Amino acid sequence: GAVVSQHPSRVICKSGTSVKIECRSLDFQATTMFWYRQFPKQSLMLMATSNEGSKATYEQGVEKDKFLINHASLTLSTLTVTSAHPEDSSFYICSARLPSDEQFFGPGTRLTVL
Amino acid sequence: DAKTTQPPSMDCAEGRAANLPCNHSTISGNEYVYWYRQIHSQGPQYIIHGLKNNETNEMASLIITEDRKSSTLILPHATLRDTAVYYCIVLSNTGKLIFGQGTTLQVKP
Fold first, then answer.
1. How are beta strands A76-81 and A67-73 bridged, if at all?
2. Stretch B49-62: mean pLDDT
3. A69-113: pLDDT as tens digits
4. Separation between Cα atoms, residue A60 and residue B60, nearest integer Å
5. Quick check: helix, strand or coil at residue B9?
């Protein structure tokens, strides 16, 4: 299947700092990518839809000013967690959608905010 | 978005077939059923998807009932590495995959 990468795989930051997570589709172009968050022992929760060349659309309850999404090219979407706090510690996962509607997921980024 | 219902957990003996059921009684005629699995601390892995015909690939088979209200994912010869959480998802017309709680499959030696 198609390959999606995320960087970094793991990040630890201090409270109040911002963290950027990259999501790349390595062997295909994706006009649409998705960002999810997963807390321990819970399922994935969709945060937002990232559309190339336009603003992201956020799910209800997700703060767009806190979770900044930029989809500047057909192979790259970034999620920036601004002014991170310990409650933002989570596993962040992106997915990229093929024209056939299949979605492939990245390996995830473990964020720990101290 | 059509909801899905899956048993929270299942056990399967290594080498035997694992049959994972999923109910999606409110599915619409043009909505696909997708299956993903997630091994601990990794991103979900695509397994298979279908609309109304049964599907098979190198990983699994997907059996969809004629009324499309339920489906079964079949892993023909489960191995210990198939231990994971399996998610059955109906792809909405917005293209979003909304994850439920899934089925935790434990393959035992």
1. antiparallel
2. 95
3. 999 899 999 999 999 999 999 999 999 998 888 899 999 999 999
4. 35
5. strand
Q: What angle do CA A24, B82, A6 make, to 5 degrees?
A: 15
For chain B, give the mean pLDDT. 94
Mutation for testing the B interface, residue in A44, A47, A58, A90 having most B CBs under 10 Å:
A44
Q: Is residue B1 very low, low, confident or very high in pLDDT (cuts 50, 70, 90)? A: low
pLDDT tens figures, B7-34: 999 999 999 999 999 999 999 888 999 9
Nearest CB neighbour to A49, from listed B42, B96, B100: B96
What is the token pair recorded at B46?
A: 């695509």
Amino acid at A58: Y
Q: How far is B16 from chain A (nearest CA, A)?
A: 26
- First-last CA distance in chain B: 38
B95–A43 C-beta distance less than 8 A: no
Best A5, A103, A112 member to test B by mutation, with max B CBs in 10 Å, is: A103
Which residue reads 């950027």 in tokens? A20
| Out of A43, A108, A110, closest to residue B100 by CB | A43
